[in-house]
UniProtKB/TrEMBL annotation:
Keywords: Cell membrane, Ion transport, Membrane, Transmembrane, Transmembrane helix, Transport. This is Cation diffusion facilitator family transporter. Residues 230-306 form the Cation efflux protein cytoplasmic domain. GO terms for cellular component: plasma membrane. It is found in: Cell membrane. GO terms for biological process: intracellular zinc ion homeostasis. Signal peptide: none annotated. Residues 1-20, 303-322 are annotated as: Disordered. GO terms for molecular function: cadmium ion transmembrane transporter activity; ferrous iron transmembrane transporter activity; zinc efflux antiporter activity. Its main location: membrane. It is a multi-pass membrane protein. InterPro entries: Cation_efflux, Cation_efflux_CTD, Cation_efflux_CTD_sf, Cation_efflux_TM, Cation_efflux_TMD_sf, CDF_Transporter.
Protein backbone atom coordinates (compact mmCIF):
# COMPACT_ATOMS: atom_id res chain seq x y z
CA UNK A 1 0.00 0.00 0.00
CA UNK A 2 2.82 2.41 0.84
CA UNK A 3 4.47 1.72 -2.52
CA UNK A 4 1.22 2.34 -4.39
CA UNK A 5 0.72 5.57 -2.46
CA UNK A 6 4.22 6.68 -3.39
CA UNK A 7 3.43 6.07 -7.06
CA UNK A 8 0.50 8.50 -6.92
CA UNK A 9 2.25 11.26 -4.95
CA UNK A 10 4.84 13.73 -6.25
CA UNK A 11 8.44 12.69 -5.78
CA UNK A 12 9.81 14.64 -2.83
CA UNK A 13 13.60 14.45 -3.24
CA UNK A 14 13.85 17.63 -5.30
CA UNK A 15 11.94 19.63 -2.67
CA UNK A 16 13.82 18.32 0.36
CA UNK A 17 17.31 16.83 -0.07
CA UNK A 18 18.04 18.63 -3.32
CA UNK A 19 16.73 21.98 -2.12
CA UNK A 20 18.94 21.66 0.97
CA UNK A 21 21.91 20.91 -1.29
CA UNK A 22 21.09 23.92 -3.47
CA UNK A 23 20.90 26.19 -0.41
CA UNK A 24 24.21 24.78 0.80
CA UNK A 25 25.78 25.52 -2.61
CA UNK A 26 24.50 29.09 -2.49
CA UNK A 27 25.83 29.46 1.04
CA UNK A 28 29.24 28.23 -0.10
CA UNK A 29 29.16 30.72 -2.95
CA UNK A 30 28.36 33.58 -0.58
CA UNK A 31 31.12 32.43 1.75
CA UNK A 32 33.64 32.43 -1.11
CA UNK A 33 32.56 35.90 -2.19
CA UNK A 34 32.94 37.29 1.34
CA UNK A 35 36.43 35.84 1.85
CA UNK A 36 37.69 36.78 -1.62
CA UNK A 37 36.27 40.30 -1.26
CA UNK A 38 38.20 40.72 2.00
CA UNK A 39 41.40 39.33 0.42
CA UNK A 40 41.19 41.69 -2.55
CA UNK A 41 40.38 44.65 -0.31
CA UNK A 42 43.45 43.94 1.86
CA UNK A 43 45.57 43.59 -1.28
CA UNK A 44 44.35 46.92 -2.66
CA UNK A 45 44.91 48.71 0.68
CA UNK A 46 48.47 47.39 0.87
CA UNK A 47 49.13 48.64 -2.66
CA UNK A 48 47.55 52.01 -1.86
CA UNK A 49 50.01 52.53 0.99
CA UNK A 50 52.91 52.00 -1.42
CA UNK A 51 51.31 54.29 -4.02
CA UNK A 52 51.20 57.07 -1.41
CA UNK A 53 55.00 57.33 -1.17
CA UNK A 54 56.13 55.96 -4.54
CA UNK A 55 54.00 58.12 -6.79
CA UNK A 56 53.69 55.30 -9.36
CA UNK A 57 50.88 56.03 -11.78
CA UNK A 58 50.95 52.44 -13.06
CA UNK A 59 50.60 51.07 -9.53
CA UNK A 60 47.83 53.57 -8.82
CA UNK A 61 45.92 52.24 -11.81
CA UNK A 62 46.46 48.65 -10.64
CA UNK A 63 45.34 49.57 -7.12
CA UNK A 64 42.16 51.23 -8.31
CA UNK A 65 41.60 48.23 -10.56
CA UNK A 66 41.86 45.84 -7.63
CA UNK A 67 39.40 47.91 -5.61
CA UNK A 68 36.96 47.81 -8.52
CA UNK A 69 37.49 44.08 -8.97
CA UNK A 70 36.67 43.39 -5.35
CA UNK A 71 33.29 44.94 -6.08
CA UNK A 72 32.52 42.32 -8.76
CA UNK A 73 31.47 40.19 -5.79
CA UNK A 74 28.41 42.42 -5.50
CA UNK A 75 26.48 41.24 -8.61
CA UNK A 76 27.39 37.64 -7.81
CA UNK A 77 26.23 37.99 -4.22
CA UNK A 78 22.94 39.46 -5.46
CA UNK A 79 22.60 36.55 -7.91
CA UNK A 80 23.22 33.95 -5.20
CA UNK A 81 20.70 35.67 -2.93
CA UNK A 82 18.09 35.79 -5.71
CA UNK A 83 18.74 32.14 -6.56
CA UNK A 84 17.60 31.12 -3.08
CA UNK A 85 14.13 32.59 -3.60
CA UNK A 86 11.31 30.14 -4.25
CA UNK A 87 9.74 29.84 -7.68
CA UNK A 88 6.65 31.93 -8.46
CA UNK A 89 3.87 31.77 -11.01
CA UNK A 90 5.85 34.19 -13.18
CA UNK A 91 9.31 32.69 -12.60
CA UNK A 92 8.24 29.06 -12.53
CA UNK A 93 11.82 27.75 -12.66
CA UNK A 94 12.98 30.06 -9.88
CA UNK A 95 15.69 32.72 -10.05
CA UNK A 96 18.78 30.59 -10.67
CA UNK A 97 19.42 32.24 -14.03
CA UNK A 98 20.38 35.43 -12.17
CA UNK A 99 23.84 33.87 -12.00
CA UNK A 100 24.04 33.96 -15.80
CA UNK A 101 23.18 37.66 -15.76
CA UNK A 102 25.92 38.24 -13.19
CA UNK A 103 28.26 36.27 -15.45
CA UNK A 104 27.52 38.64 -18.32
CA UNK A 105 28.40 41.60 -16.09
CA UNK A 106 31.67 39.92 -15.11
CA UNK A 107 32.55 39.24 -18.75
CA UNK A 108 31.93 42.92 -19.52
CA UNK A 109 34.20 43.89 -16.62
CA UNK A 110 36.95 41.61 -17.97
CA UNK A 111 36.54 43.24 -21.38
CA UNK A 112 36.80 46.63 -19.72
CA UNK A 113 39.96 45.45 -17.92
CA UNK A 114 41.54 44.45 -21.23
CA UNK A 115 40.60 47.77 -22.82
CA UNK A 116 41.92 49.75 -19.84
CA UNK A 117 45.19 47.80 -19.67
CA UNK A 118 45.72 48.22 -23.41
CA UNK A 119 44.98 51.94 -23.27
CA UNK A 120 47.40 52.51 -20.39
CA UNK A 121 50.11 50.48 -22.13
CA UNK A 122 49.80 52.44 -25.39
CA UNK A 123 49.72 55.75 -23.50
CA UNK A 124 52.89 54.88 -21.60
CA UNK A 125 54.50 53.70 -24.82
CA UNK A 126 53.86 57.11 -26.40
CA UNK A 127 54.73 59.10 -23.26
CA UNK A 128 57.18 57.10 -21.08
CA UNK A 129 57.14 57.99 -17.39
CA UNK A 130 59.80 57.53 -14.72
CA UNK A 131 58.84 55.46 -11.69
CA UNK A 132 60.20 56.16 -8.18
CA UNK A 133 60.84 53.68 -5.36
CA UNK A 134 61.03 50.80 -7.83
CA UNK A 135 61.68 48.24 -5.11
CA UNK A 136 58.45 49.08 -3.31
CA UNK A 137 56.54 49.19 -6.60
CA UNK A 138 57.86 45.72 -7.45
CA UNK A 139 56.81 44.50 -3.99
CA UNK A 140 53.33 45.92 -4.57
CA UNK A 141 53.18 44.08 -7.89
CA UNK A 142 54.02 40.83 -6.13
CA UNK A 143 51.35 41.51 -3.50
CA UNK A 144 48.77 42.19 -6.20
CA UNK A 145 49.68 39.06 -8.14
CA UNK A 146 49.65 36.74 -5.12
CA UNK A 147 46.39 38.17 -3.77
CA UNK A 148 44.58 37.90 -7.09
CA UNK A 149 45.95 34.44 -7.92
CA UNK A 150 44.83 33.08 -4.53
CA UNK A 151 41.35 34.54 -5.04
CA UNK A 152 41.26 33.19 -8.61
CA UNK A 153 42.12 29.64 -7.55
CA UNK A 154 39.62 29.77 -4.69
CA UNK A 155 36.74 31.06 -6.82
CA UNK A 156 37.41 28.73 -9.73
CA UNK A 157 37.71 25.64 -7.51
CA UNK A 158 34.51 26.28 -5.55
CA UNK A 159 32.69 27.53 -8.66
CA UNK A 160 33.36 24.22 -10.40
CA UNK A 161 32.44 22.22 -7.31
CA UNK A 162 29.02 23.88 -7.00
CA UNK A 163 28.51 24.23 -10.78
CA UNK A 164 28.49 28.06 -10.89
CA UNK A 165 29.74 29.34 -14.25
CA UNK A 166 29.51 32.92 -13.00
CA UNK A 167 31.80 32.21 -10.04
CA UNK A 168 34.28 30.48 -12.37
CA UNK A 169 34.19 33.51 -14.68
CA UNK A 170 34.81 35.80 -11.71
CA UNK A 171 37.77 33.63 -10.75
CA UNK A 172 39.16 33.97 -14.27
CA UNK A 173 38.65 37.71 -13.92
CA UNK A 174 40.74 37.74 -10.73
CA UNK A 175 43.46 35.89 -12.64
CA UNK A 176 43.55 38.66 -15.27
CA UNK A 177 44.06 41.17 -12.46
CA UNK A 178 46.99 39.10 -11.22
CA UNK A 179 48.51 39.37 -14.68
CA UNK A 180 48.06 43.14 -14.55
CA UNK A 181 49.85 43.30 -11.20
CA UNK A 182 52.61 41.11 -12.58
CA UNK A 183 53.04 43.60 -15.40
CA UNK A 184 53.75 46.28 -12.79
CA UNK A 185 56.50 44.05 -11.33
CA UNK A 186 58.11 43.24 -14.67
CA UNK A 187 57.85 46.84 -15.85
CA UNK A 188 59.54 48.05 -12.67
CA UNK A 189 62.32 45.52 -13.21
CA UNK A 190 62.84 46.76 -16.76
CA UNK A 191 62.94 50.37 -15.59
CA UNK A 192 65.52 49.44 -12.95
CA UNK A 193 67.69 48.00 -15.72
CA UNK A 194 67.41 51.23 -17.71
CA UNK A 195 64.69 50.08 -20.13
CA UNK A 196 61.73 52.38 -19.47
CA UNK A 197 60.01 51.04 -22.59
CA UNK A 198 59.75 47.63 -20.90
CA UNK A 199 56.74 48.77 -18.85
CA UNK A 200 54.41 49.55 -21.80
CA UNK A 201 55.60 46.55 -23.82
CA UNK A 202 54.84 44.21 -20.92
CA UNK A 203 51.51 45.98 -20.50
CA UNK A 204 50.57 45.19 -24.11
CA UNK A 205 51.61 41.56 -23.61
CA UNK A 206 49.42 41.31 -20.53
CA UNK A 207 46.53 42.84 -22.47
CA UNK A 208 46.77 39.95 -24.93
CA UNK A 209 46.78 37.47 -22.02
CA UNK A 210 43.67 39.13 -20.59
CA UNK A 211 41.95 38.74 -23.97
CA UNK A 212 42.56 34.98 -23.84
CA UNK A 213 41.05 34.83 -20.35
CA UNK A 214 38.14 36.93 -21.64
CA UNK A 215 37.56 34.36 -24.37
CA UNK A 216 37.42 31.50 -21.84
CA UNK A 217 35.05 33.36 -19.51
CA UNK A 218 32.78 34.46 -22.37
CA UNK A 219 32.64 30.90 -23.71
CA UNK A 220 31.72 29.57 -20.24
CA UNK A 221 28.83 32.01 -19.90
CA UNK A 222 27.75 31.55 -23.54
CA UNK A 223 27.45 27.81 -22.99
CA UNK A 224 25.21 28.37 -19.97
CA UNK A 225 23.01 30.86 -21.83
CA UNK A 226 22.64 28.33 -24.67
CA UNK A 227 21.78 25.48 -22.24
CA UNK A 228 24.95 23.57 -23.08
CA UNK A 229 26.02 20.74 -20.79
CA UNK A 230 29.01 18.42 -20.64
CA UNK A 231 28.21 15.43 -22.93
CA UNK A 232 29.67 13.19 -20.22
CA UNK A 233 26.71 14.16 -18.01
CA UNK A 234 24.31 13.04 -20.75
CA UNK A 235 26.16 9.72 -21.05
CA UNK A 236 26.02 9.25 -17.28
CA UNK A 237 22.29 10.03 -17.17
CA UNK A 238 21.62 7.50 -19.95
CA UNK A 239 23.57 4.82 -18.07
CA UNK A 240 21.60 5.51 -14.89
CA UNK A 241 18.28 5.30 -16.74
CA UNK A 242 19.04 2.16 -18.74
CA UNK A 243 20.13 0.42 -15.52
CA UNK A 244 16.72 1.14 -13.95
CA UNK A 245 14.50 -1.98 -13.79
CA UNK A 246 11.57 -1.68 -16.20
CA UNK A 247 13.21 0.83 -18.56
CA UNK A 248 13.48 -0.74 -22.03
CA UNK A 249 15.43 2.15 -23.52
CA UNK A 250 15.87 5.90 -23.26
CA UNK A 251 14.11 8.18 -25.74
CA UNK A 252 14.93 11.86 -25.60
CA UNK A 253 17.06 13.22 -22.79
CA UNK A 254 17.51 16.93 -22.10
CA UNK A 255 19.62 18.56 -19.39
CA UNK A 256 19.94 22.24 -18.60
CA UNK A 257 21.61 24.38 -15.97
CA UNK A 258 19.53 26.79 -13.92
CA UNK A 259 22.06 28.68 -11.86
CA UNK A 260 24.31 26.03 -10.33
CA UNK A 261 21.71 23.24 -10.40
CA UNK A 262 20.69 20.84 -13.16
CA UNK A 263 17.19 19.96 -14.34
CA UNK A 264 16.31 17.03 -16.61
CA UNK A 265 13.49 16.15 -18.98
CA UNK A 266 13.45 12.50 -19.99
CA UNK A 267 11.39 10.15 -22.16
CA UNK A 268 11.74 6.47 -21.29
CA UNK A 269 10.21 3.45 -23.02
CA UNK A 270 8.50 0.75 -20.92
CA UNK A 271 6.59 -2.44 -21.70
CA UNK A 272 3.24 -1.69 -23.35
CA UNK A 273 1.32 -4.18 -21.20
CA UNK A 274 2.18 -2.46 -17.91
CA UNK A 275 -0.67 -0.86 -15.99
CA UNK A 276 -0.70 2.89 -15.44
CA UNK A 277 0.41 2.40 -11.83
CA UNK A 278 3.26 0.08 -12.88
CA UNK A 279 4.47 2.42 -15.65
CA UNK A 280 4.33 5.34 -13.25
CA UNK A 281 6.30 3.35 -10.67
CA UNK A 282 9.06 2.76 -13.25
CA UNK A 283 9.13 6.48 -14.06
CA UNK A 284 9.35 7.38 -10.37
CA UNK A 285 12.19 4.91 -9.86
CA UNK A 286 14.03 6.37 -12.88
CA UNK A 287 13.57 9.88 -11.47
CA UNK A 288 14.69 8.72 -8.04
CA UNK A 289 17.91 7.22 -9.40
CA UNK A 290 18.68 10.26 -11.55
CA UNK A 291 18.27 12.69 -8.67
CA UNK A 292 20.46 10.63 -6.36
CA UNK A 293 23.18 9.55 -8.80
CA UNK A 294 23.63 12.49 -11.21
CA UNK A 295 25.73 15.27 -9.61
CA UNK A 296 23.93 18.57 -8.94
CA UNK A 297 20.64 17.38 -10.49
CA UNK A 298 17.88 19.03 -8.48
CA UNK A 299 14.75 17.82 -10.33
CA UNK A 300 13.71 15.62 -13.25
CA UNK A 301 10.54 15.19 -15.26
CA UNK A 302 10.25 11.61 -16.55
CA UNK A 303 7.69 10.65 -19.22
CA UNK A 304 6.97 6.98 -19.91
CA UNK A 305 6.15 5.80 -23.45
CA UNK A 306 4.73 2.31 -24.15
CA UNK A 307 6.78 -0.15 -26.17
CA UNK A 308 5.39 -3.09 -28.16
CA UNK A 309 5.56 -5.21 -31.27
CA UNK A 310 2.68 -3.44 -33.04
CA UNK A 311 3.25 -0.55 -35.43
CA UNK A 312 1.01 1.87 -33.53
CA UNK A 313 2.33 5.40 -33.29
CA UNK A 314 1.48 6.55 -29.78
CA UNK A 315 2.40 10.13 -30.66
CA UNK A 316 0.55 10.40 -33.95
CA UNK A 317 -1.53 13.32 -32.67
CA UNK A 318 1.67 15.30 -32.05
CA UNK A 319 3.42 14.40 -35.32
CA UNK A 320 2.66 17.76 -36.93
CA UNK A 321 4.10 19.64 -33.95
CA UNK A 322 7.51 17.92 -33.88
Amino acid sequence: MARAGHAFTPHSHDSADKSDAALESSSRGMHVLAISFAALAVTAVAQAVIVAFSGSVALLGDTLHNFADALTAVPLAIAFALGRRVATRRFTYGYGRAEDLAGIIIVLIIAGSAAFAGYEAVKRLINPQDVQALGWVAAAGVIGFLGNEWVARYRIRVGREIGSAALVADGLHARTDGFTSLAVLIGAGGAELGWPIADPIVGLTITVAICFVLRDAAREIYHRLMDAVDPALVDQAEQILTATPGVQRVGSLRLRWIGHALRAEVDIVVECDLSLVQAHAVAVQAEHRLIHDLPRLRAATVHADPDGTDSADHHALLASHR
